[in-house]
Hints:
two-stranded antiparallel ribbon, Rossmann fold, Dehydroquinate synthase-like, alpha domain, alpha/beta, 2 domains
Amino acid sequence: MENFEFFNPVKILFGKGQIAKLRGAVPAGARLLVTYGSGSIKRNGVYDQVMAALEGHTVSEFSGIEPNPAYETLMKAVAVVKRERIEFLLAVGGGSVLDGTKFIAAAARFEGEPWDILAKHAPVNAAVPLGAVLTLPATGSEMNFFAVISRAGTQEKFPFSSPLVYPKFSIIDPQVTFTLPARQVGNGIVDAFAHVLEQYLTYPANAPLQDRFAESILLTLIEEGPKTLANPADYNSRANLCWCATMALNGLIGLGVPQDWTTHMVGHELTALRGLDHGQTLAVVFPAVLIERKQAKRAKLLQYAERVWGIHAGAEDEKIHQAIQNTRTFFESVGVKTRLKDYGVAPNVVESVSKRLAARGWTTLGERQDIGPKEVEAILSHSL
């Protein structure tokens, strides 16, 4: 096991009726900015619950944060934070709203060009404190310090991270997710599953506890994901899905083990270039990564086949092939297609993605840092 440091200060308030606890969770007397997306929280009752809990506070609002939150939109919110002298941010929504709000928090206190936080990995030295009310289980943004932001004008999508944008608290009430469209739920299942695989399907690091944590999340998603799609108002299944998504990327299962993240980096390019949902890109790219990297990942793929999919019979290559096929079938079973052609994406995107990665110098992807443009093209060729 590799050396590691672990720190996660996020307070989680999980379960029915927890939004009412906002009253005591946000700082007394602070000027608040509530951020949200297109307005679905006003249709499903979440907005009313939040505002009732915030009665007596000084509250401003900023709406319109998109899926794949846009830098251009977020900078408008930064202007509001500065003009209104906002002291606390409250993100109400899914991963995109949470990610966008983390960037707002950092950009509002950044000295210089905020785009440098994303494009040049400029350090974040200060941030507006924030909290979250989660409405879509997927990204784990409610309990980590990561965010991914897009820039429409340049068709770019970049991640950033800083311990200063950990939420002070996150409220997760599975009931508020009951009305989500099936497409968003399916994408969320794939997103959580892929987060686990990025940290698990690498090479052995003598970290059996982390492995078994990861496998337990995968097995639970396989069991509970289809249930919650079949019956969206099943509280128990939706609660399990919500907690799986949080645990998949709160840092715990990645401690002391090698991590990949090739699928995410390639997927971000597909979103930036062709507008695919994040979960859709993961469903397309991950099986292709496993096919192309099956020798480099051989030991963990065999473990994955046996422990997660219960594949014990057959030769090793047969087990690996079946495990990869089962992964693709699972993504399809929750409504997320796994081929670029399913989304009307032409084969010429393969070269476009590899060129963009090369132009940025991102030529050492993967847990072994041996994936460059040539390997990316090979990976994407399996996804056509």
